[in-house]
Amino acid sequence: SGFVLVTSSSYFFLRPTTSAIFKPSWPSRGIGAHHMSSAYADNLSKNSFKGRLNLAPLRDPASALRAKSRLLAHLLLAAPASSAVFHTGAGISVAAGLPDFRGPDGIWTRQSRGGASRAEAAPATPFELAVPTLAHTAIATLARRGFLSAIVTQNIDNLHRRASLPPDPSPTPVLELHGNTLLDTCTNCRLRVPRTSASPTVGFTSRGPDLPCPRCREPAVVDSVLDWHDPLPEPDHALARRVSADAAWNVVVGSSMQMEPSRGLPRRGRGMVLVNLSEVEGEEAADLVVHG
Fold first, then answer.
1. For residue 13, which phi and psi values (nearest 5 degrees)?
2. I need a surface site. Which of 53, 126, 138, 242 has the fewest CB within 10 A?
3. Which residues contact 190 (CB under 8 A, 6 or more apart)?
């Protein structure tokens, strides 16, 4: 009975008394991938508040990572089954070729320096071709082994769902608080409609009468990607609040926790663990902080 701990640059498979570190070779972050994610960012309405930017990388020494990994393994193994919730942000998908927003090469950071963000070339790694990273796979493995009650993500990239697809699906719900660029929604019958390419719009924009719902045939299909001031989707938001409050451990991976209301969810439970490559808002309130 092992345990997998995800970090931004590695993951750990642990047993109670031993640990091994796996250092994967990540896919290259090509310029096309940066253009692709920037195109999504450019679709958002203008908003002056982007939070703290250009967050410097922080890495715990290898010995500290091992010690913290053993501690987190012990905490989750000792907790009741399905009592942990993983909360993920953009940092978890950087290894898939999707840039984050506030890191040294993040989209908002580049914009703050006067760098162009609009797509200027065909993307090398479109959202629909991005592959789940070892981090996504590890979290899906934890879900299948009965550690998690839910995965709560701010990401729109569909990678948690892809990591949990058959032949070994996870029964753990994936709660996408900012929507999914590869899933439209019918506002009439609530059917989730898969897309073959990333949504060209945000803010629940209608697909129009030429693209009716395949189930109810009503022209009620809209994108599911939130714009800045859109309310979080229900019932995902309500379920995220409930499972976070009930959790023995809320584990945050790849997020600087700067945006409300997502930043408040992990603080609702009995314990909180932060795993990120940069400083996280509210580290002083965490039971365990892992930088890496």
1. -110, 120
2. 242
3. none
| Lookup: tokens for 283 | 């580290």
Q: Dig out the tokens for 70 from the structure.
A: 């053993």
CA atoms lying within 13 Å on the CB side of residue 193: 25
Q: What is the DSSP string of the chain?
A: --EEEE-SS-EEEEETTEEEEE---PPP--HHHHHHHHHHHHHSPP-S---S-SPPP----HHHHHHHHHHHHHHHHHSPTT-EEEEE-GGGGGGGT---SSSTT-HHHHHHTT---S--S--SS-GGG----HHHHHHHHHHHTT-EEEEEE---S-HHHHHT-TTS---S-EEETT--TTEEEETTT--EEE-SS--S--SS-B--TTS--TTT--S-EE-----TTPPPPTTHHHHHHHHHHH-SEEEEES----STTGGGGGGGSS-EEEEESS--TTGGG-SEEEE-
For 41-72, the pLDDT digits (tens) are 777 777 666 778 777 888 999 999 999 999 99
Residue 207 structure tokens:
């697909």
Lookup: tokens for 116: 């162009």
- Residue 284: CB atoms within 10 Å: 6
Q: Catalytic positions, please? A: 178
**DSSP β-bridge partners for residue 276:** 291
C-alpha span between 182 and 162 (Å, rounded) = 11
Per-residue pLDDT at 179 exceeds 60? yes
Task: Check residue 231 and give its pLDDT.
Answer: 92
State pTM to two decimals: 0.83
**Cβ neighbour number for residue 167 with a 10 Å cutoff:** 4
Which residues have CB under 8 Å from 142's CB, separation 6+? 3, 4, 84, 86, 148
| Contact of 109 with 51, CB cutoff 8 Å | no
Find the range with the poorest average confidence among 68-82, 100-114, 159-173.
100-114
